[in-house]
Specification:
Elements: H1 8-18, E1 22-23, E2 25-30, E3 36-41, E4 44-48, E5 53-58, H2 70-78, E6 80-84, H3 91-97, H4 107-111, E7 115-116, E8 125-126, E9 131-143, E10 150-162, H5 175-178, E11 181-183, E12 189-191, H6 203-218
Antiparallel strand pairs: 1-11, 2-3, 2-6, 4-5, 5-10, 6-9, 7-8, 9-10, 11-12
Bound molecules: flavin mononucleotide.
Flavin mononucleotide binds at residues 24, 37, 39-43, 57-59, 69-71, 95, 98, 100, 183.
Length: 219
């Protein structure tokens, strides 16, 4: 399907319906008055292991065309944010925080989301989140044009908070115990409950196996 033949609504549906599943960055920011904003973003990815860094993309407000959502405005103004992972227990609160609250209403207070202090950034994190990632703004890039512009935010990770039972001394996360949820197309979600293992092979093992099969079928 060629996006050039589709209207904006269909492009949006195709984009969120074809990139699956997407992890959720439940993002805390604050404005200059100190109002704490919490909102989920599934255009979210890790993007550098060694800086280290992550990226999320924040669209524009629907109610005030051309205005960035509060999360992007706050990150651009303070240079700080925290990405909090969402487990099954936090799903309902995460969803409520996605409602279009006005900028002066903090979702944390309105939804009843308990916050905990961060270490290296001023903005708080979600206390009950299994993993929280403190970030400082590294790059921002405007994608598209008003009124449908998005802000791609790249943040340098400056601190990880991992619930004590989830991390072993070799920096391995107990992934099944995190119980993260992920976004699918539309208002749909999946549970990531059954991690399984598949190690990347040595290329020589792949080559040894591949051609021998092919050779047999040729003769
Ligand atoms: C699971 C989920 C994922 C979302 N992902 C995005 C996203 O990637 N980008 C975006 O602009 N909005 C996304 N939204 C919508 C925002 O969360 C919503 O517009 C929110 O009100 C923005 O809040 P803010 O204005 O306080 O930043 C998502 C909503 C949900 C429920």
């Amino acid at each position: 399907m060629d996006p050039d033949t589709l209207d904006d609504a269909a492009r949006h549906k195709m984009t969120i319906g074809t990139i699956l599943p997407r992890p959720i960055a439940w993002t805390t920011t604050q404005n200059q008055a100190g109002v704490v904003n919490v909102a989920p973003f599934s255009y979210f990815m890790g993007c550098h292991s060694y800086l280290p860094a992550l990226a999320l993309s924040v669209g524009s407000r629907r109610d005030v065309p051309g205005m960035p959502k509060d999360t992007a405005a706050n990150i651009l103004s303070t240079g700080e944010f925290v990405v909090n992972l969402v487990d099954e227990a936090l799903a309902e609160a995460m969803n409520q925080s996605a409602a279009a609250f006005p900028p002066d209403v903090g979702e944390a207070e309105a939804v009843g989301i308990e916050l905990a202090p961060s270490v290296k950034v001023d903005v708080a994190r979600v206390a009950a989140s299994p993993i929280s990632i403190e970030c400082r703004l590294l790059h921002s890039l405007t994608l598209g044009e008003a009124p449908l512009a998005s802000t791609l935010i790249v943040g340098r990770i400056v601190m990880w908070h991992v619930r004590a039972d989830l991390l072993d001394p070799a920096y391995r996360i107990d992934q099944a115990a995190v119980q993260p949820i992920a976004r699918m197309g539309g208002p749909n979600y999946v549970h990531a409950r059954d991690p399984w293992t598949m190690a990347i092979p040595d290329w020589r093992d792949v080559v040894d196996r591949g051609p021998s099969d092919a050779d047999t079928s040729d003769t």
